[in-house]
């Protein structure tokens, strides 16, 4: 298994597959790079695909830091891996937590980013309306993650009955989830506000979101407006869209990347 040992001695799991323009995939909360299997198979034919298990997730080492240091710590790991692979610039794909991560990464290292594909994510968890306050209240409740994995897996499966591939993969995420580190990462993004910094980005941005969540669409509209990005609402989809509608996700992303590199 390919691992990179960071400056502070932590093993970070990664894979680099294919040739062409670099394309880095960052997974969702508590998940791993395995959630991108449909994308790896599709994009490795044309791109140098890099998948990484962020510190505290999947096959990577422990995440032990303060809540406010989580994203910066994980970003430092990723930039070290890119340096190791001699990748000076790349496009980045991030779903959910991964979407927050790549926004923060682009703000921190703008010269490393060719383009961003942000899916089913957000840039601001502050509450400017009663509707958003109620919805975010539910999303921010970390106690739910403390329930037995068997219960969580059952709840997750029922939520994805219309999307069997996503349901199967998300069940694996729940069963293998590292609770302490997942809760720490959830707390990190519970108070995220990237608005001002996002508006300074000068790279092509594609924003994708499933049509099964009104709040999700609203939050991705905000990301799109701040980054001057292209917004596409994917029909019959939910978070994560790359697993609910992998063919549509891949096609739209591929067409966007072709325009970026044309």
Automatic annotation (TrEMBL):
Matches recorded under InterPro entries: AB_hydrolase_1, AB_hydrolase_fold, AB_hydrolase_sf
Please tell me whether the keyword Hydrolase is annotated for this protein: yes
The record's GO molecular-function terms, alphabetically, read: hydrolase activity
Q: Which UniProt keywords apply?
A: Hydrolase
Pfam families given for it?
Answer: Abhydrolase_1 (PF00561)
Q: Which domain of life is it from?
A: Bacteria
Under the heading SUPFAM superfamilies, the entry gives:
alpha/beta-Hydrolases
AB hydrolase-1 domain: which residues? 22-236
The protein's name: Alpha/beta hydrolase
